[in-house]
Amino acid sequence: MRLGLIGCGNIGEFLLQAINKDGLLSGGKVVSIYTRREEIALQFAKKYETNSYQDFETFLHSDIDFIIEAATIEAAKEYSLKILESGKDLLLSSIGVMADPAFEKSIQELCSKNNVNIFLPSGAIGGLDLIKSAKALDELEHVSITTRKPPSALPVDTLLKEENLMFEGTAAEAIKKFPRNINVAVVLSLAGLGCEKTKVKIIADPTVLKNTHLIEASGSFGKFKLEVENDPMPHNPKTSYLAALSLLATLQNKNKPMQVGL
User: Fold this and answer.
1) From residue 189, how far is each of 26, 106, 153, 185, 236 by CA, in Å?
2) CATH no. of 128-238
3) Pick from 255, 151, 127: which is nearest to 208 by CA?
4) Using CA atoms, how far apart are residues 126 and 224, in angstroms rounded to an integer?
5) Is residue 213 annotated as a catalytic residue, yes or no?
């Protein structure tokens, strides 16, 4: 699998190290990277033995068959449709872009038309398999996520003394206000009731050192509660380490003949 990578931030570099240096993706290598930061691109190309591009069309038509987006919601919105139109599969990190129903519809239509796939990793949370199972007969009644983060991981005063409820509403509203902090709410919505019916709370808490996500659901199956406590990425308190690991795991399991926990 010849991979192209959009984005050379913390997650992008994690994938380059894991795949190109540590050999954790059998038969796979990142052969092309795209970033507008020329200095970083050249540095990474040398360090991880790959090719760098600052022009997207040249990158898209380089010798790659699968593309990973590890950048921003803005980048995902700008490039996802072009990638699928080119006939390449896509692993999407900035899942918040899928909160736009019109964009999601365009993605679905392109995948069907061009016989391509888009992969949406679970990110920093778990329990999506249970949510999908509970939804099988359309008898899933309630899904919510409460995210608690240290102030340094949110756009808030880092000297905050007491916990602060920064947001309460739907996933659709949350991703508009916190596009870099609450992608987990959107992937949870896609697995369950949708962005308009998934309830979200975001709390800045100076007493915690890690990002935590409490997922609660109920329906004909019973009740479900899962709390995930994540260590942050090194040098980036805004991103959970598990989010990066979920991208690598998605790649590792992409072509396996036996799929577990779907």
Assistant:
1) 32, 18, 22, 6, 25
2) 3.30.360.10
3) 151
4) 12
5) yes
Low-confidence ranges of the chain (pLDDT < 50): none
Q: Point out the catalytic residue in the list 61, 142, 213, 235.
A: 213
The number of residues in the chain equals 262
Q: Give me the helices (H) in the chain, please.
A: 10-16, 38-47, 56-60, 73-85, 101-114, 128-134, 171-177, 183-191, 241-253
What percent of the chain is helix, strand and coil (3-state, nearest 5)? 35, 25, 35
Where do the structural domains in the chain lie, given as residue ranges?
Answer: 2-120, 128-238
Over the stretch 23-38, which tens digit does the pLDDT of each residue have?
A: 999 999 999 999 988 8
Report pTM. 0.93
What residues form DSSP beta bridges with 227?
214
Please tell me the CATH superfamily of domain 2-120, with its number.
NAD(P)-binding Rossmann-like Domain (3.40.50.720)
| DSSP SS3 for 238 | strand
Residues 207 and 217 sit within 8 Å (Cβ to Cβ): no
Measure the CA–CA gap between 260 and 242, rounded to whole angstroms. Answer: 19
